[in-house]
Design a protein that fits this description.
Blueprint: H1 12-84, H2 90-100, H3 102-105, E1 112-118, H4 123-132, E2 149-156, H5 160-163, H6 174-186, E3 190-191, E4 208-216, H7 225-231, E5 232-241, H8 242-250, E6 257-263, E7 272-275, E8 288-295, E9 298-306, H9 308-314, H10 318-342, H11 347-372, E10 374-380, E11 385-388, H12 390-395, H13 407-413, H14 419-432, E12 435-443, E13 449-460, E14 466-475, H15 477-495, E15 499-504, E16 509-512, H16 514-520, H17 524-527, H18 542-555, E17 557-565, E18 571-582, E19 588-597, H19 599-613, H20 623-640, E20 643-652, H21 654-661, H22 663-680, E21 686-691, E22 694-702, H23 705-719, E23 721-726, E24 729-742, H24 749-765, E25 771-773, H25 776-798, E26 801-810, E27 815-827, E28 831-833, H26 839-842, H27 848-868, E29 875-879, H28 881-884, H29 889-899, E30 908-913, H30 921-933, E31 937-943, H31 949-955, E32 960-963, H32 965-970, H33 975-990, E33 994-998, H34 1003-1011, E34 1016-1018, E35 1026-1027, H35 1031-1037, H36 1042-1045, H37 1057-1076, H38 1091-1108, H39 1112-1115, H40 1117-1134, H41 1140-1169
Parallel strand pairs: 24-25, 27-29, 29-30, 30-31, 31-32, 32-33, 33-34
Antiparallel strand pairs: 1-2, 1-5, 3-4, 4-5, 6-7, 6-9, 8-9, 10-11, 10-14, 12-13, 13-14, 15-16, 15-19, 17-18, 18-19, 20-22, 20-24, 21-22, 23-24, 26-27, 26-34, 26-35, 27-28
Amino acid sequence: MRQTNAESPPTIASRFHNEVTAWVVLAVSLVITAIGWYISQTYVERRAADRFAYEVEDARQRILGRMLEYEQVLRGGVAMVASLGRPATRTEWHTFVSGLEIQRHFPGIQGVGYAVMLPPEQLAAHIDSVRAEGFDDYAVTPVGARDVYSAIVYLEPFDWRNRRAFGYDMYSNPMRRAAMDHARDTGLPAVSGRVTLMQETAKDVQAGFLVYLPVYRAGAPDETVEARRAALIGYVYSPFRMADLMRGILGGDTPDVGFVLHDGDSQNAETLLYASDTAVALDAAVRRQTATLSLPGRDWSATFYSTPRFEAAMSSRQPEMIAVGGLLVDVLLFMVIWSLGTERRRVEARAMAMTADIREATERLELAQDSAGIGTWEIDLTQGRVIWDARMLQLYGMDETQFFGRLTDWQRCVHPDDVTRVQAAIQAAITRGGVFDSVFRICLPDGRVRHVEAHGSAQVDPAGRPLRMVGVNRDITDQHEANAKIALAASVFDHAYEGIIITDEHQRIIDVNPAFTVVTGYRRDEVLGKTPALLQSGRHDAAFYAAMWAELKRTGFWRGEIWNRRKNGALYAQMETISAVPDGDGGTRRYIAVFSDITKMVEQQEKLERMAHYDALTGLPNRSLLADRLAQAMALARRTDTRLAVCYLDLDGFKPVNDRFGHAAGDQLLIQVADRLKSLLRDSDSVARLGGDEFVVLLNGIDDALACEHALERLSEGLKDTYTVSGSDTAAVSASIGVTLYPMDDVDADTLLRHADHAMYFAKEQGRGRYHLFDAEQNRQMQAHRQTVSRISRAISAGEFVLHYQPKVDMREGRVVGAEALIRWAHPKRGLLPPAAFLPAVDDGDLAIPLGEWVIGDAMRQLSEWLRQGLQIKVSINISGAHLQQQDFAAHLEQHLRNHPEVPASLIELELLETTALDDVSKVSEIITQCRALGVSVSLDDFGTGYSSLTYLKQLPADTLKIDRSFVRDMLSDADDLTIVEGIVGLSRAFRRQVIAEGVESEDHGKLLLRVGCHLGQGYGIARPMPAEALPEWIRSYRQPVAWQQVSDMPWLRDDLPLYAAEFHHRQWLDQLVASLAPDTETTPPLKDDPALHRFAQWYAGEGQIRYGHLPEFAAIGPAHRRLYRLADALAQTYGVASGRDRDALCADMLRARKAFLERLNALLAVLGDGVPPAAPTAEAVPATV
């Protein structure tokens, strides 16, 4: 039988074709598998590269951002100085930096400082000024001569580390100087190169750098480099320790990326700024990236590298899964085709079996793809058609009816924020004929957003034209969210400020965070496997821990304060929260403890507690604790039926100690007084310091007033002593004590203290070292006085005081020689008040000095204004003794003169109230000498009324004596006052002093003063005090009275004074008489027995006859005077009853008689004025009669 073709054995060519086909299929399938593996592997690598680039950029931006924040801190410092218009004080700088809370808001910053620029000639004065603040060992370092210096004067916080830089001359270091010059010339911040900070010690030395921002003089131009150099006064700057800075910025080393920072482009040990502490070396890192950090005036080079943790996190088994699955399919296909070629006889049976195997393998592959969420897609680039498999439709939440195979169908599904980026990536892959890798978001029809990972590859024809693109999509939403949660948890754990401990169910530590090491000092490797008991301090007993664990097991939570011990043995307080993590079976799987170091807060609370109840300087109870003890003492007095003495003490002489020796000496004195008080009291008594030099003593168990006096005597005498206050300097100090007895003074505690305070003021008014028992009426007076003083203080602040000016004239020459500044109170309700209405309340009080300083300043301001108007006039300013004897009075006066350089010192005269009791005449003399050395003259006011006028005249180098108005006012009617005035004029002439009289109220006063040799005068008869704006016009219009012009310059002899008095008295009588004779007047004429008329008659008949009786001019006066006497008698008898005609005739006779009398009297005065001396009286001289 003939064999058919089907049954014939295969030929050699057929067998060869079958074998080649099998190998070709295997090769093609291997290529497809390789492509799939390559696409997946490329995606994994690209994702890792993108993540690495993100981490690098994040670290870079955080560093640059934090440096920008630090720059704003410096700009805030410059703005603060600019707002002041002057360099800030140490207190202002401390307040400013403290308000920034840099440790909280700007971690990593070492401090904020201010450095002043100094030319060599200002160096010594600068060092002295800083030492005067209490820094006795302050110096500008390094020591040496330089063309210019800088000195760090403020650096806050002013802790032990920053104190090492106090006074350092940063300009002496070339690296720092380069940055400072750059900042100065540009007006912008500048970063220095790598330096070792002055704050470094031998331990934990770190690389450092500084940031500078220049401070220019307020108002100075700064448009050019030269202008900025000329206007520079200092720098606001901050030092940084690199390791501390990086911890502040990044919270320690990042777990995924490490980096190394170098100063500039060079990378060596000298330029190294910072290197991460990671487990991999830079050379061994899989990924590295170099970046430049551009800072103000400086560039840093940074090299970032990946860590093993990063590589582990970015690794993926997806490429291996694709490769294994693909190889399995490839081998199966090869085996099928090979079997077809070698075993044709069993092809149908084997084909069915292989088909089943292929189907099973395909299903496994599809199952693997389904489990991996992988969908396959294809884009026909020639037709614009898109093919999706079922998994793609499922991935995008669509079915076949919603997808039409258009590219726009896919684009609508991509998130709007990602679509442009993804399209660009696809276009780039098509253009280059390469692969497409991207991660993006898609929006499902139900509104959900999913994260998708896409990989694809573009295929081109032999001509290079794109044909299609094939790829896969995978849903990575769960992975993305898991990675985000893991990253967040790791970041919180590593960067938390609080320490965190995680233990297993047996309390063995399995992990701690970096903050744990910072707080306890233990490294992580030192505590793993141990229990938290290694931290126990021993301050808590077993019952404490038993209660803690009982609550933790009962509630799964415990919170409280615990004292633990650091690795170095130091105790610290921590606020701790412990939570139990359940295992799902009712047990505990983990314990998590979170704690904060609250040691400083606890110490601060204890410090505040002590500060709240005790005085920081003396250690005595303060006002708060006094209130508690006073309440207890009052209750004890009521309970035991005894008396409580509440004593208010104020030290006598404390202010001079402060003024003379400084506040440190004052503090030393207060400490000694506090110790003395404690030694003088019984255990049952109490003492407290209220502040300043004021103390309160509570004497319990006082039986009666006598016992109280004995206790006060003991207290007063015990405090009265000479204390050493500074080195060998001593001060005699006593105490004024005010006392009130409870319950005799049955009021509340606060009122008891006020009553004792009021009594103390009365004691102080009685003299030093006195005590006084409270009295209600005296208290009322004191209250009124205090209210007045308080109102005056407010008036000073409100600017309610003004100066009026009373002119001084040369009565002989008829010119204005000066003006006295007299204070007035422009009271808003009571109007303009004279000095008598308010000055007694402030004399020798605390307000005397500020009020006096205001008077000096305002007078100089007014002088400056007058000088601008062309008026040059000398101004006298009244100075109280308390003001004059204050510390550095002459220096304050010199400062006033500096404030008004246009005012010559010669235009200022100080009038010292001579009636003031001066504590130290020699000291006052020294102060006056200092004032005169400044060019300021000094006058003794109210001369003749003081305690020891001759002593003052001899010891005080005053230029002028001012005769008190009380003598001048009454010298026309009181021969004694006239004699005193003449005596003062003689004293001034003998001591070569100028003399001026105040109280010139009439022309007669001026004439008499001129005749006794005083030609300078001041008073209402010349001008009343007037506002400053009225004085220039008054000066221009002033004219010398004619009567003063007629008085001879030659003074009369002293024996002629009675004649002057008699003449003035009689003239006054005549003027009154003439005034009464005027028509329509209601004035009653002076009678013949008027004292003025009799006084002249007595002089004429007595002393006048003896001294001038030999002169014919004197003899001619008698008849004229007798005629006036008779007419006055007639006028008195007929006044009111005579007819008009008779009265007119009588008046005419009286006027003629007056004229004749004055002519004769002037003739006698003329003889004496021409220098004709009267003859000495003879024994035969007989008194004349009138």
